[in-house]
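Researcher: Batch entry, complex prediction.
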Amino acid sequence: MKVLVINCGSSSLKYQLIDASTETALASGLCERIGIDGLLTHKVDGKKVKDEEKNPMPNHEVAVKLVLDALVDKDYGVITSLEEIGAIGHRVVHGGEHFASSVIINDEVEKAIEACNDLAPLHNPANLVGIKACRKVLPQVPMVAVFDTAFHQTMPEKAYLYGLPREYYDKYKIRRYGFHGTSHSFVSKRLAELAGLDIHNSKLIVCHIGNGGSVTAVKNGKSVDTSMGLTPLEGIIMGTRSGSLDPAIVEFIAHKENKTIEEVMTVLNKKSGLAGMSGLTSDFRDLRKGKSEGNQLAAIAMDAFIYNIVKYVGAYAAAMNGVDAIAFTAGIGENAIEVRTGVMENLGYLGVEADLEACKQMGQEMMVSTKDSKVKVFIVPTNEELAIARETKALL
Ligand code: AMP
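Model: Structure tokens for the complex:
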């Protein structure tokens, strides 16, 4: 079965056509600037075959049609007919408490996703637009919604409840939801295989460290705690997000800077993290360059970033009363050697022994702890699109 995986943003649409039997990506691409002018990049075998060119994309429906045209194009298409698309898997950011697993999309599911819009106002409406556009253009193709939050629905109350008056949970469902669930699920399964562990009898920690980042404790195959919360703002320091801080800081900044709550939230989401601390960049590679050129603030931001991850790993080892294996994944986790070594250096007390030579490798699946290390540590490249295709195939 060929599965089209769609990840829709408010003005963008990422796609990948995956042969779910061989688990290979046949084509991938990105529509950008939807509603502005329109830019489509289409890749086959990872190589760009259709140059970025202006395609008027007044809305997502037109973007979906352009993607389908590209997939069946006689020069650079990868299928001869749209009938070859057996299913569509949609990434949906927030499933609230409605969805603890992926679901086949119907009108009722659409409504339930819409009911979660309050919880992810930037993401869910965009995901829904993508779903509606695909259902309109390909009404006969079955579609599945795969939620970023679903994997974390196994967290116990003690992990997901905040120390707030109960009524806020009862009335508004304010609680920890967690994100990157598709990645944490995919990576934890693979980590157990690589470490030779029975996932149903294992204590794993997954560090998904990209521009956004979260750390998850996975016990016996289930998420039992995770660093992101009601929204993806909580947790470790990220590219532009502050991560966890004293909530009183919001009011303090608002008073001092004469800003509204909304304006302060924009600062915390878009102008903080590595970008805000360094005053330089949110991109780890540029931060590294800044540090090597003697930029003190870049060095401090990097130190704080690593220190934060160390603290979460320690907290989750404590929460599970031990840890058998740890994975690093996503852009920084897979590639930034100094982050991996910086974190591992501080985990000796848990029985982590870094293989300093292996640690210099990057970007590929491999063990970076010694073979005698009590806790095994691996780089496990994440593949959220493949995970969505697998879920879609499994459900149908
Ligand atoms: P992601 O959000 O998973 O795409 O990750 C993006 C982050 O990964 C950015 O901060 C990049 O600078 C970082 N990144 C990508 N490649 C490397 C690399 N070779 N070394 C260090 N950081 C990298």
